[in-house]
Hints:
The complex is a heterodimer. Chain A has 2 domains: 10-120, 3-Layer(aba) Sandwich (Rossmann fold); 138-287, Rossmann fold (3-Layer(aba) Sandwich), CATH 3.40.50.261. Chain A is 35% helix and 23% strand. Chain A has helices at residues 19-31, 57-64, 75-87, 102-115, 155-167, 188-197, 214-222, 258-267, 279-289, and strands spanning 10-14, 34-39, 47-48, 51-54, 68-71, 92-95, 118-120, 126-129, 133-136, 145-152, 172-177, 203-209, 229-234, 271-273. In chain A, strand 12 (203-209), helix 7 (214-222) and strand 13 form a beta-alpha-beta unit. The radius of gyration of chain A is 18 Å and the shape is globular. Chain B is an alpha+beta fold. Chain B has 3 domains: 21-91, Dna Ligase, domain 1 (2-Layer Sandwich); 97-212, D-amino Acid Aminotransferase, Chain A, domain 1 (2-Layer Sandwich); 224-366, 3-Layer(aba) Sandwich (Rossmann fold), CATH 3.40.50. Helices cover 36% and strands 25% of the residues of chain B. Chain B has 11 helices and 17 strands. In chain B, helix 9 runs parallel beside helix 10. The mean pLDDT of chain B is 93. Chains A and B meet through helix 4 and helix 5 of A and helix 7 of B.
Amino acid sequence: MAILVDEKTKVLVQGITGNQGAFHTSQMIAYGTRVVAGVSPGKAGQEVHGVPVYETVEEAVHSHGANTSILFVPAPFAKDAAMEAMAAGIRVVVVLTEHIPLHDELELVAYARQRRATMVGPNTFGVISPGKCKAGFMPSVIYKPGPVGIAARSGTLSYEVAATLSAAGLGQSTAVGLGGDRIVGMSFVDALALFAADTHTKAVVLVGEIGGTAEEEAAEFLKTMDKPAVAYLAGKSAPPGKRMGHAGAIIEKGRGTFESKVKAFKAAGCAVAEFPWDVPNLVAEALKDR
Amino acid sequence: MKLYEYLAKEVMGKHGVPIPRGRVAASPEEAEKIAAELGEVAIKVQVLAGGRGKAGGIAFAATPQEARDHAARLLGIQIRGLQVDRVLVEEKLKIDRELYLGLTVDTSARVPLVMASTEGGVNIEEVPEKYIIKQHLDVHMGLYPFHGRQLARRLGLTGSLARQFADTAVRLYQVFREYDAELVEVNPLVVSGDRLVAADGRLNIDDDALYRHPQVPRTHEGTELELRVKELGLAFVQLDGDIAVMANGAGITMAVLDILASYGGKAANFLDAGGGAAIEPTARAIEVLLATNPRAILVNIFGGITRCDDVARALIQVKNTRGIPVPLVIRLVGTNEEAALSILRESGLTAFRSMRDAAAEVVRISHGPGGEL
């Protein structure tokens, strides 16, 4: 098993005719993902790497039963595209786009709640269930199938962690990027709830960073979860008041500090790795204790 | 992006939020002229920083001549490290009470949040939570007059003031939504006799939404170098250390800074070269690093959509054109790693495979031959 996506997932690619959309469609297909349709307004009737292109999500869902959508759509049009997907009944919408306006994200989160849809992102690398399905642009070679779930706010840092896990023989059930923005659809808590219910996942790695309170909320949830978790947090040395690349990575008015997050995780019995390369040992230890 | 007070108030005024009479002045003469129209005035420096009253940036004048003198004194000085180019000259308000009203986004609940208090004024940051009323809003519903009435009632306002408060809350929410605000705030919202007036105003607009607000004047915050790098579309923060850092991805760049700090080094900057950056932008980014005059440079690339060979080519390009006068420590793994390593080798450069070894090496170099620093 896995969370969010697996070998049965029928993926729709919105923005499939663009450079990025087309390239990563080929990569996802090569990985074994069932990409069933694409949508690009004004480009209906074409094929991209053998995938039929439609004008609307509604038609793609109707004709192919797509249940998960991945967006390669520029920021000014991303809200419209994600809304269209949710309105058409798509269950999981993966929004890769960076720089989506904050107020658009507010509206997307509100509509996702109303539709009981899951929005992954925005500003994420996507989600991958190794050996089953890749819905994103992550370098798939670093992942191996296995028992560790990964939820991360940042892409490359989670690649680093995934690669060290794989090298240590600790494969992954699913790795999901939550996104680096201030407001994202799926939170650490949402991801943990799915991993908790997934029989294949034996331990979870959380890759967090300064800013916001998502890690503190995750720590609260961990107190009720009976699977072990290990965290790595970036931004220990970051100065307050400065946005560290991600819109959400900022210490404001004493909120979102590294210390607060470490304290919360430790109080929940969750080991916090000092360095990314310490994660596999901590996971192995946590699994041994069970 | 933060707006100056006078611009924030201009926007609020347009949306029917009551603001004091007044205008912005860039010279003592202008300040004098405005004061002549208004009578007794407040003169307030326009800088993108809070706490300017405590820093001496606000003065009061009873006559136009006094207004001119204050403006002459304030224009050109530095308040909280920022140069004063303009002052806002506006009617001096009789202040009976100071309220607070603000709208922002609760990033935890992921909904708009309205905040109100009867304890407004310069010390709002220190006001205990229990004196600040917070109410979540539904973004698809907005802030209705009834929300405003509820807030007024919870603040203990009655009669005409309650009505004015509710109306102001509705109008401020319109500003919040229409301007893609991260924060819109009136502090203090002054009770002056029988009227409410926004004595100070803040409006911070989401950078990612600026494209749909071309009419809003742009303000610029940050060091000269930070502004230059912003033009390149890269995420950059200047720090005070001596190891220049470039990595790909915000999280890994933060992690690199942390690792350097743990090893006893100090980073000169945060620079996220982004995912999948091509040769030219990467070369530009390396040139930015050199501009910080570092003792050493650390390049850490985990190639996913970023191709290691592109990074290697960019490094060689800069080395061969303008030269890299300081030690360069490279860590490359991932996509096209082998090609990258052979490109580097041809130019006499090597690369580490582990982040740990690269970080240790660059810290060692930065401490200098005698372990100085």
